[in-house]
Amino acid sequence: MPLPKRARGIRLIRMRASVIVPAYNAAPTIENCLRTLTRQDLPRADYEIILVDDGSTDTTPQLAQPFAQVRLIRCRHRGPAAARNRGAREARGEFLFFTDADCEPTTNWIQNLLAPFSETEHPIATAKGVYPLDSVNWSRALCSSSTRKNTRTWNGRGGLIL
């Protein structure tokens, strides 16, 4: 696969995943989110963490600074979609994963999301707020339907839809 124009002539280290976290006034939750992302069961060279501060007026950027492995990008407030897009443009990983600043991914989150891409030649995978109650290969169980047995759907606003 040819390199993008901006990358030609630059020696790139190919990492597997970029985790992009858009944040706006996330001071109450950002430390726990970043702590769990830095403790993944995956070599640190295999993934990067990009925190896109969407013009926060609280201490979100300052709280992220002690996390040396987190790349902080600051931009003016334009909303979460613009922040995600900015992170995607800056990402170096082969795969882009997004999580919110109030989430605390499990230590095997990235590894489980990468697994389907290692198991088949032409994988297609998607996940949107569907989490199985059991922990067995939950990334494979994620689907767009909330009718799957033993699942709960998170509405993205702090509550579970049972």
Description:
The chain has 162 residues and is an alpha/beta fold. It starts with 14 loop residues before the first strand and ends with a strand. It has a 4-stranded parallel beta sheet, with helices on both faces. It has a 3-stranded antiparallel beta sheet with strand order 5-6-7. It has helices spanning 30-38, 60-64, 80-90, 109-119, 138-141; strands at 15-23, 47-54, 70-75, 93-98, 130-132, 151-154, 160-161. It is globular.
List keywords for this structure.
162 residues, alpha/beta, four-stranded parallel β-sheet, three-stranded antiparallel β-sheet, 25% helix, 23% strand
What's this model, at a glance?
By secondary structure, the chain is α/β, with parallel strands linked by helices. It has helices spanning 30-38, 60-64, 80-90, 109-119, 138-141; strands at residues 15-23, 47-54, 70-75, 93-98, 130-132, 151-154, 160-161.
Work out the strand percent: 15-25%
Give Rg in angstroms. 16 Å
Largest sheet: 4 strands, parallel
How many β strands by DSSP? 7
Cross-sheet strand order for the largest sheet? 3-2-1-4
First-to-last CA distance: 43 Å
Instruction: Round the mean pLDDT to the nearest integer and report it.
Output: 78
Helix content: 10-25%
| Shape summary | globular
Tally of helical runs: 5
Detail the poorly predicted runs. Answer: 5-11, 130-162
Please identify the structural class as seen in this structure.
Answer: alpha/beta
Oligomeric state as shown = single chain
> SSE order, as H and E?
EHEHEHEHEHEE
